[in-house]
Amino acid sequence: MPDDQYAVYEAEAERLGIPIGSYSTMRLAEIHHLPVPDYILEEIRAAADRRAAAAAKASRDQIAGFDSLEGGRPLARSA
Question: What are the residue boundaries of the structural domains of the chain, listed by start?
């Protein structure tokens, strides 16, 4: 792999949440009109699940942070 292209491939693999070797294999399969191996599809699904779980946790943590302000009292009073 050319040194000047490695960063591009690495960034794309990281964006998908898969190893760079899996990314290379996936792209080669696509270029040659072959099916992407199931293990790579599973890696992509697992990475998407991890991102979704992390986002849900971050959302819960943010809400919990709001709840803990002012000792758990409401932040605004209703009229």
Answer: 3-69
